[in-house]
Amino acid sequence: MDQVAIDKSCILKIIRKEKNARMRLRLLAILHFQEGRSRYQIAAFLKVSRTSVNKWVNGYLSNGLSGLKEKAHSGRPSALSIEQKVQLNNYIESRKNILNTDKLKGNDVQSYIESNFGIKYEISSIYKIIEKL
Questions:
Q1: Cα distance between residue 103 and residue 127, in whole Å
Q2: Taking phi first (over 0 means left), then psi (-120 to 50 degrees means alpha), and beta for anything else, what does residue 48 get?
Q3: Own/partner long-range contacts of 100-106 (Cβ < 8 Å, ≥24 apart)
Q4: What is the distance between the alpha carbons of residues 70 and 89, in angstroms, rounded to a whole number?
Q5: Vertex 41, ends 39 and 44: CA angle to 5°?
Q6: Whose CA, among 31, 57, 75, 106, lies 20 to 30 Å from 67?
Q7: d(CA 73, CA 111)
Q8: Is residue 88 helix, strand or coil?
Q9: How far is the C-alpha of 89 from the C-alpha of 94, rounded, in Å?
């Protein structure tokens, strides 16, 4: 479904308002494409792969600006099962009650996971897990 190309001044306005850096990069690529630059030149100028530029331009040509939107990323599946997460949540809640505080040290949780589930996490990942729970 081909869409009408959006003029350069409109793309510039959109770029100025866009908060997402990745989307701004895609919009800049489209702006350069409309100015007649080759995909190779655009890739070199923006310091991205030519494959990415091809994907962005093709998405734009076939679906307009909506073709530039990032697809959802599923990410890596959690090493902890649902049951383990429930058990971990119960541990965290019980520790909070014992300590009478909302704060629980990440290394305590890290040690608990490793000793009970045999899974090693970096401390930064521990805080992400706690936040999700």
A1: 12
A2: beta
A3: 104/130, 106/130
A4: 33
A5: 110
A6: 75
A7: 30
A8: helix
A9: 9
Place 55 in a pLDDT band, splitting at 50, 70 and 90. Answer: very high
Q: What is the pLDDT of residue 3?
A: 46
Backbone angles phi, psi at 77, to 5 degrees: -70, 150
Q: What is the rounded distance in angstroms from the CA atom of residue 26 to the CA atom of residue 119? A: 39
How much is the pLDDT for 127?
Answer: 86
Compute the distance between CA of residue 92 and CA of residue 80 in angstroms, rounded to an integer: 15
User: Radius of gyration (Cα) for the chain, nearest Å?
Assistant: 23
- The beta strand positions in the chain, using DSSP E, are none
State the pTM of this model: 0.53
CA distance linking residue 40 with residue 47, whole number of Å = 10
Residue of 27, 78, 82, 77 lying closest to 53 (CA atoms): 27
Q: Residue 88: how many CB atoms within 10 A of its CB?
A: 19
Cβ proximity of 70 and 77 under 8 Å: no
Q: Residues 61-115: pLDDT tens digits? A: 999 888 898 887 778 888 899 999 999 999 988 887 776 666 678 888 999 999 9
